[in-house]
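Handoff note, outgoing to incoming analyst
You'll be picking up this chain. Sequence as last confirmed:
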Amino acid sequence: MGYIPTYITRKLMYDTDAGYGLTLPADVTAGIEDFLHDIPKPLKRSAARKLYGEAYAKERFKSTHKKAYGEAVRSRHPRPEVFAKNAALKEAIERRDKNRTEARERREELRQQKRLNKHCLKREIAAVACSRRKKLVGGVSKLAPQPVRRVPQKDKVFLDIIGKCERGGQLGRAPLVLSFLTDKPLLRDYTLPCWDKTSSTLKIMAMSHQSHISGGITINLHLSPNVHQQAMTSSKGPAPYMQDRIRKAFMDALDTVLPFWFILEYSRKTKTYHLHGAVVLPSVPDAQIHVDQALRIAGGKWDHDKAQYHQQKSKPLNDPFVWASYAVKAMNITRHKLFPDQSDDNKKIFAASNEMRRLAKDGWDKLRGGLPQPGKR
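Most recent structure output, in case you need it:
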């Protein structure tokens, strides 16, 4: 194979699928070290890089190595072991290139989200300032848009910080959380509003919290191509359309509509939309299995079984603020893709059952009183 770059040798030491380090067999390591013992020092580093790179590629991609070795033997290749090693290294390089491309796309998606978040924040602050100026001049006419009293992007920043504190186990330390919040100039006088004035972000935070209290599980639903097309072309809109499908699936499978909520998220990689949310489990045996099956039915049938299995995989909702922050991370770009000419925060990119909305509304005052707020007196 010739020269093996250092980054390939280093990458091959880790199983990127399972997430743990690979360990070479002792006899392989001993053989490499014995071979390197007699090599002059200036050439030892490059030789070690090549030999360990080949060994890790062979260990990481055993099936590829075995298949290539069999093909080389059947075709009477003069050096079947070298042919097989080269095949394993080729797959290693292709896997590395694929991972790098995906990482680059993720970074670009995050940059786009940050740019759009800043744009939405500036637009909302300008709208608030405009409404205040109109009030000072002499009130707002009936034809003018209603004044905007809150900046929804502040709620998104607040939830992001609360989610990070929960992930780090620091949510119970109110002074520390307040210091994180006041580090953001936008949040130095921030307070949570009453339920009637909450934005989509705060409603999702409240519903995620109530799902956690009620023993809920997460929704990670990918739509089949057929259902995705129907949702995008529905006259009601994609969120109400999927809400009706999920409600019907629960009624058919469990004879009841479970409390649930979800939000649409746009995927830049697949150019499609999927669902993140939560649902409260019923008191029946194997409830999680039945709920997942109902959600898969709502998401539509795929052409192959593997996609059908990965279409919906739920987990217990143990970190409600982390999950809510994750669910709304692409809210701005999703709304921009679905409604490019609109800026209304209440455009339907999320939906919830009536029971879930009632639970969230009833528990909002208690939740609001228990969270640190820089502007709270």
